[in-house]
Amino acid sequence: HPKIPNCVILICFLTLKVQQFSEKAFLLQLLKTHENALERQCSEITNQRNMLLQTFDATKKKVTEEEEKFIKEITDFNNEYEITKKREFLMKENVKIEISDLENQANILKKEMKSMEHESGQLNELQKQKSELIEELFSLQRKLKVFEDKKNEAICITKYLEAEKIKISEKPQNDAECLR
Question: Model-level pTM?
Answer without folding.
Answer: 0.35
